[in-house]
């Protein structure tokens, strides 16, 4: 008697996203929040990052692996008048799917390197190029996810996956950051988030207070991070970007952006090609 094997479909979530960053002048940004696990390749120029007491500088020969939830100071440094980089962000559902396919790949936060540069060998370079091709050609979402898994596997085989697969633990603030990133701006209310986490608004506030933060601070971090990405990667008017990220006033957005990053949205735009 022949056994029938059930072939499960590839149950993907959101596909990885590609942000292409360019500059013709040096960019210095402080407190840059990277909400999702991300992989960056500098195609021209150099990138310098600082976090805590550590710093790292990388160029065209490496991939920069950034753990989810990182906040760091960044300098994008042009060469011959241009800085160019590709940044791929990996949604948490894709990382969970990878762990299911390859058990034991996740590591505790305390054991993971939050930010690391990796030399590209033939397998890593091939997997990276294939992932970029899938995203740029708008391949089916499940193919994009599989390509991202292939890159994670190539990195894992080298033992250099760093903090991309780190398990972020039980901190409610970290879980809320991830949740907010998946929501549209109009859905990012305290009440909706409390409901999603099956608790009252007052309970959620108390839990965040124990971690020395609050909902407004987490929301601000997520909104500013998305605004920075749109300013660097699109030509949308600043007022439209402010509105799309959840800000009611373009002027208040500009003030808050400058307070956080150290330069205004218009000053950042002046560094772009």
TrEMBL record:
SMART domains referenced in this protein's UniProt entry, alphabetically: HTH_ARAC
One Pfam assignment: AraC_binding
Ranges for domain HTH araC/xylS-type: 170-271
Annotated PROSITE patterns: HTH_ARAC_FAMILY_1, HTH_ARAC_FAMILY_2
Keyword annotations of the record: Activator, DNA-binding, Transcription, Transcription regulation
Protein's UniProt keywords contain Transcription: yes
InterPro entries tied to this protein: AraC-bd (IPR003313), Homeodomain-like_sf (IPR009057), HTH_AraC (IPR018060), HTH_AraC-typ_CS (IPR018062), Tscrpt_reg_AraC-type_HTH (IPR020449)
Protein name, as recorded: AraC-like DNA-binding protein
Natural source organism: Herbaspirillum frisingense
